[in-house]
Design goal:
38% helix, 5 helices, 3 strands
Length: 134
């Protein structure tokens, strides 16, 4: 059985949840763990303070992180759900910051736009602006 001390961040899942809820209040989140990966997803909640972001496809579709165990160097421990939650937190915060700085064009991110790129392209754009890892 793995112990929380094997986490990259040194945070327990409880601590990661507290950090997430402090930094993105009113956002939903999920985590998962299996033999293949540790995963996390998040997005603005429909009754939270960032509900206005749901008008934009990038935020409405949410953010996902999949930390695959076998793609990690052999000297690194397996990813833990807390690592995945913190990684998706950083991705979502970077997207929100890029949006607030006006770095994401409305015609690209609005759900109603006929010229929308796919969500993967939008996430890559956010990651490039924020210099975060995919």
């Amino acid at each position: 059985m793995r112990t929380q001390s094997q986490s990259e961040t040194g945070m327990t899942l409880f601590e990661a949840v507290e950090k997430f809820e402090r930094e993105l209040p009113g956002w939903w989140w999920t985590v998962g763990d299996c033999s293949v990966s540790a995963d996390a997803s998040c997005g603005p909640d429909r009754v939270g303070p960032d509900v206005h972001l749901l008008d934009f496809r990038l935020f409405d579709e949410g953010f996902d992180v999949d930390l695959r165990h076998r793609e990690r160097p052999s000297n690194m421990p397996r990813a833990m759900p807390s690592d995945a939650l913190l990684a998706v937190l950083e991705e979502a915060k970077a997207a929100k910051a890029a949006f607030l700085r006006g770095e994401l064009r409305d015609e690209v991110t609005r759900r109603s736009s006929a010229n929308c790129g796919d969500a993967h392209d939008l996430r890559l754009s956010v990651q490039q602006h924020a210099h975060v890892r995919p």
